[in-house]
Write a sequence for this structure.
């Protein structure tokens, strides 16, 4: 029996919102080392150093605003829950069976949803039912054992944001990764000369506390920059294929994927069609009206004909 890596997330429940304070603590330490100790004072020294400090500070604060905006958008945004008494529509119940849409209940004769089952119907294998929530599950919906609820288009439960990443906050999560990578890379490069000074023969100015803050901040930001870059590359590939982390894990044995609409449309399925909103954690009202998938219940699918042509 293979080990399901997603069950490991149940151990993360005990961490709770302490992770939010950890993130803010790292941000505060970076702010102190970069702004208060180094580039803030350099702003008033004049000359080329003053201009460099101004550019670094402007870029740092701009990225910091976008990072915190994206972060708290992920934390505070409901990833998407199944509406009460939701049932699949008749036109969504038809079509070829998909391995990821297969029924997750026993098809016992005469069994009903209140027992965690629905009547067997070979023509309606897309219908899914969650025993734990005692409700039907829309397409691409999964149950989170940490949150104790079904999440629409669930990607994973992220301990850093103390929330699930799903249909309604996946874009915010991606932007959080993007701005975190840019911010940590900027801090790393900006503090690199000061970090290298620790290994030089010259005297280093500053208090022991400020020097320790510079050293620790550089190491932390370098580590986060490299690790976040890996996660960012992973999720870019998932967006390009219009899949999630869970779906990528589940569909290894599936040669075709009905939700792959092409890279351009796959990108729009997450970020929307309005380009002005692509780099902020929000959607335009027009996109919310014309793109039902942003609500997490309906998703356009490709026909089998188009899929076969590419295989």
């Amino acid at each position: 029996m293979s080990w399901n890596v997603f069950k490991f997330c149940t151990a993360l429940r005990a961490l709770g919102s302490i992770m939010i304070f950890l993130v803010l603590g790292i941000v505060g330490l970076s702010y102190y080392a970069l702004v208060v100790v180094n580039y803030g004072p350099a702003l008033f020294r004049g000359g080329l150093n003053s201009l460099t400090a101004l550019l670094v500070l402007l870029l740092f604060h701009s990225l910091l605003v976008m990072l915190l905006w994206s972060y708290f958008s992920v934390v505070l945004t409901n990833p998407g829950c199944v509406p009460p008494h939701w049932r699949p529509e008749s036109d969504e119940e038809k079509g070829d069976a998909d391995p990821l849409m297969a029924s997750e209940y026993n098809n016992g004769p005469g069994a009903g949803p209140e027992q965690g089952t629905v009547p067997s119907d070979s023509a309606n294998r897309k219908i899914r039912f969650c025993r734990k929530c005692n409700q039907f599950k829309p397409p691409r919906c999964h149950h989170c054992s940490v949150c104790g609820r079904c999440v629409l288009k669930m990607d994973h439960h992220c301990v850093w944001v103390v929330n699930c990443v799903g249909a309604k906050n996946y874009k915010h999560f991606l932007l959080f990764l993007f701005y975190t990578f840019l911010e940590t890379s900027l801090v790393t490069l900006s503090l690199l000369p000061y970090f290298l000074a620790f290994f030089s023969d010259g005297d280093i100015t500053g208090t022991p506390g400020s020097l320790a803050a510079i050293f620790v901040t550089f190491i932390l930001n370098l580590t986060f920059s490299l690790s976040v870059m890996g996660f960012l590359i992973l999720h870019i590939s998932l967006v390009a294929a219009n899949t999630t982390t869970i779906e990528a894990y589940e569909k290894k044995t599936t040669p075709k994927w009905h939700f792959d609409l092409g890279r351009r449309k796959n990108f729009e399925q997450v970020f929307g069609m309005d380009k002005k909103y692509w780099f902020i954690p929000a959607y335009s009202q027009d996109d919310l009206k014309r793109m039902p998938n942003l609500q997490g219940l309906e998703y356009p699918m490709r026909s089998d004909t188009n899929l076969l042509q590419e295989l």
